[in-house]
């Protein structure tokens, strides 16, 4: 009996180990979401891939509503119209994701999207959405299909005396500062043996007088700028001017813009006109050269 009790008493009683260390997955979703709201969208998406708790917290509507423009509903109506093209049951994360795509409107002549990182509004207007003097006369202009344009088509000027390109956009831009650019190229590019080659045969007249860019807005803002077109064979964004949207009600603003060289003492030609870009001014330094 004594041996038996001694044996029982010699067994080690298992002791409880240290409590598990709390991890991110143990935090309440509301707390995690309150932290995620201070991050930019790419950071939120990267964290959402770490575990399920972060993934669930990252889908909170208040996070993504803070990233959307204040007037995002006006933008949706302007781009998608009043029909049911834009799903009404989208959560705010899905709304943000959809608006970050290149969304075409106005018969495909314009594209608008949100910058994925900042949520700022950007826009492209194709050459088909511009008013170009003489565009229907094949002696002066021609439409050329190309993969170098987001719209798969550009306007090519062979030769003309009176050069004028005008455009207009009415859009509910969110409050902020915007810069407008013309995307142009001197010379006509094509592929030869798989390599890009630019033909500058028709390029002439742009060194005689500068091109004048103008923009004006429905609330009285105006800007004028002049520059010579010099570099051949490369697409260049020429800065035409800036405008500011200050309306707190985020109503639509009308912006008119033009590019002219109407000195009829000489002809000019060999110019490709692709599109007009409207970007938040803080992005301007990234690609501005002229």
Please give a structural write-up:
The strands form three sheets. Strands 1, 2, 3, 5, 6, 8, 13 and 15 form an eight-stranded antiparallel sheet that branches. The protein has a domain of 166 residues: Jelly Rolls. Strand 9 and strand 10 form a beta hairpin. The protein is elongated and about 85 Å long. By secondary structure, the chain is α+β, with helices and mostly antiparallel strands. The protein has seven helices and 15 strands.
Give the averaged pLDDT, no decimals.
Answer: 87
SSE string, helices as H and strands as E: HHHHHHHEEEEEEEEEEEEEEE
Distance between the termini: 101 Å
User: Tell me about the biggest sheet?
Assistant: 8 strands, antiparallel
Assembly annotation: single chain
Counting DSSP E segments of at least 2 residues, the number of strands comes to 15
The Cα radius of gyration reads 29 Å
CATH-scheme architecture of one domain: Sandwich
The CATH class assignment of one domain is Mainly Beta
CATH topology of one domain: Jelly Rolls
Bulk shape: elongated
Helical percentage: 10-25%
Beta content comes to 25-35%
- CATH homologous superfamily grouping of one domain: Galactose-binding domain-like
